[in-house]
């Protein structure tokens, strides 16, 4: 039993032709962002990737039985993410993928399903059903998550768990009001037509496809609100202007037996000028950092916190447009883990 809540999130990407109303993007793909309801206890009015908390039904052994005849179920037994080590289940990689797909369907009406080409493709397929059928099942699943497998069996479909790539894992820093440990997956859609997104009017009130640069420009102009993980991960996606290059990278990670998804826990420093969240690898990251590490207060200046190696987010305490900014310096250009993708620092979205 862990002292935090567990969840899964899906960074859903699609060819940029899905969106053409937000200006010219530097990227050939867009990502789906949902605006959370202002009535939500956790992260009200925040735009985020689809996802939600783990439900006991995601651990049901009915799922391996249902899916084992069509997929290599054993590949999901690997504990190649820290979050997988925290649950007692023979296929933890399956459990959290099911959670991400189910939550995405609840929040958007988009259901990633296995097609006859899925096993030979890095792209996902969206189930095409009449809107009234989709809404009936969304309502059922929203009230009882165990209805997800009932739906799959009844309409004879399989969630496309194979198309989800592991991307990163966050344990919310002490500054968060609710502490979630979340694994983020990436899935890419091959189709270029516009997908109909039906926000649920419960947890989410709007949805949009935005290029990473368009999204970050909106954040800096105060038209979109993000939490630190979204700022950090959009800045990591910025390393890949083309969707094909990102998929190539994700495939290398998938095929590398030594690649691990490590839990990232940010540690907060409160100084007179700013709030700083230092991430693993930063010179100021405490060696004994843990879930119980509180917000650390210091009288040091921002200049005092300067270092050769930085991996942090900074928000100034004063100003009209206070936003999280990425500060990232890597003192080792030939670092051992060549699959480690660092965020680009602020300004990349305007290049």
Automatic annotation (TrEMBL):
<dbReference type="GO" id="GO:0046872">
    <property type="term" value="F:metal ion binding"/>
</dbReference>
<dbReference type="InterPro" id="IPR000086">
    <property type="entry name" value="NUDIX_hydrolase_dom"/>
</dbReference>
<dbReference type="InterPro" id="IPR015797">
    <property type="entry name" value="NUDIX_hydrolase-like_dom_sf"/>
</dbReference>
<feature type="domain" description="Nudix hydrolase">
    <location>
        <begin position="4"/>
        <end position="232"/>
    </location>
</feature>
<keyword id="KW-0479">Metal-binding</keyword>
<keyword id="KW-0378">Hydrolase</keyword>
<dbReference type="GO" id="GO:0016818">
    <property type="term" value="F:hydrolase activity, acting on acid anhydrides, in phosphorus-containing anhydrides"/>
</dbReference>
<keyword id="KW-0460">Magnesium</keyword>
<dbReference type="GO" id="GO:0005739">
    <property type="term" value="C:mitochondrion"/>
</dbReference>
<keyword id="KW-0464">Manganese</keyword>
<protein>
    <recommendedName>
        <fullName>Nudix hydrolase domain-containing protein</fullName>
    </recommendedName>
</protein>
<dbReference type="InterPro" id="IPR039121">
    <property type="entry name" value="NUDT19"/>
</dbReference>
<comment type="similarity">
    <text>Belongs to the Nudix hydrolase family.</text>
</comment>
